[in-house]
Amino acid sequence: MLDRIALQVVEVVFALAIYFLPAIIADHRKRQDILVLALFNALMGWTIVGWLMALYWAHLPNPPAHLARDVTAKRKLLRMTAFSTGLMARVNQRAAKHREAHR
Question: Among 25, 62, 65, 97, which residue's beta carbon has the most beta carbons within 10 A?
Answer without folding.
Answer: 25
